[in-house]
Amino acid sequence: MLTSALRHLKPQFLYCTGYHTPCFHGTLDLTCSVDNPLIELSQHQTVYHFGSGNSYYLGDGALLKKEVTTLRIFADYHTHTVHSHGRGTVEDNVKAAISANLRAIAITDHGPANLFGVGVKNLDVFQVIRQEIIACQRKFPHIQILLGVEANIIDLDGTLDVPLERLHEFDIILAGLHLLVHTNSLLSGMVMAGNLIGRYCPVARNRLRKLNTQAVIAALTQYPIDILTHPGLNVDIDTRAVAEVAAQTGTYMEISTRHHNIQPSYLETAFVAGARFVISSDAHSPGEVGEGELGTQLAKAAAIPPWAIHNLS
Question: How far apart are CA 88 and CA 289, in angstroms?
């Protein structure tokens, strides 16, 4: 279900699936330790490095170099502008992406169901954003600029606040479960409100967890969602159950650098269940565009192999 825009940007190198765990500690050398045994690196292997830490990964596809290749995001698929809850224009975000040496950026303003003016006023706003993207694409042809949406799951049956028949208007589709939204039914509204206090009541939390998971899975199976945004943020879900369905539908689970609720254990559980990931900034100001360091740190802590994260390069 991967969009053509995302396929176009897929990394061109392949990773060796034999070594998923950090394999270097200390000085880089021509041998490394994976669960103690020494492995001789061939001339056709390269070493990839997550962020600024001291953990390294083996990968195929390039000659071995003395220096380490640091993995960074090459695209930020989750950014907001003044059209919803952001503080910069489309052009501001694009310029920030260029400054961050990104190859692509998606403008993904909130859907219309968000309360308190957080979302777009109506779906027609996205056509205004499209025109601004077209103008920016002419001005900055060396970066790919995608029109997206961060749609809201507004019902336990998985309904989004962007109708299925309108989704073809977007290059990339993000969706997430947010608390403060207009819901489709009284029951769904009660569940969203319940999540605000459910964390303090174990009995209610267990019930809400099942309902939240039900809503997310229903959305994944009904809509061509490319990225599930900040899974579990403020709403408890069954990570394994959601990840299994995301793997089946080809939906990436987001590693957000904006929200610090993500734990390595969540990534480990999702990965084992078959999920693949995207690191994104969820930028609400141009200065946040392209921020990926926290995401690479989390991936390193959870020993997620680089090939499982779509936008690493």
Answer: 10
- The answer regarding whether domain 71-308 maps to CATH 3.40.309.10 reads no
Q: At residue 210, what is the residue type?
A: K
For range 140-160, the mean pLDDT: 96
Find the helix packing angle between 239-249 and 202-222, rounded to 10°.
0
Give the domain ranges of the chain. 71-308
Contacts of 158 (CB under 8 A, 6+ apart): 215, 216, 217, 218, 219, 220, 221, 222, 223
Neighbours of 236 (CB within 10 A): 17
User: Residue 305 above 80 pLDDT?
Assistant: yes
Enumerate helices (H) and strands (E) in the chain, giving the number of each.
Answer: 8, 12
Here the tokens at position 305 are 């192999």
Kindly report the pTM of this predicted structure: 0.80
What pLDDT does residue 163 have?
96
For the residues 73-96, what does the mean pLDDT come to?
Answer: 96
E-assigned strands of 28-116? 31-33, 38-40, 45-50, 56-60, 69-71, 75-79, 104-110
Angstrom distance (rounded) from CA 267 to CA 233: 14
Pairing outcome for strands 38-40 and 45-50: unpaired
Give me the helices (H) in the chain, please.
4-8, 90-99, 125-139, 186-198, 202-222, 239-249, 264-272, 293-301
Q: Shortest CA distance to 209 belongs to which of 243, 246, 238, 180?
A: 238
Query: Is the four-CA dihedral 204, 206, 211, 216 of positive or negative sign?
Result: positive
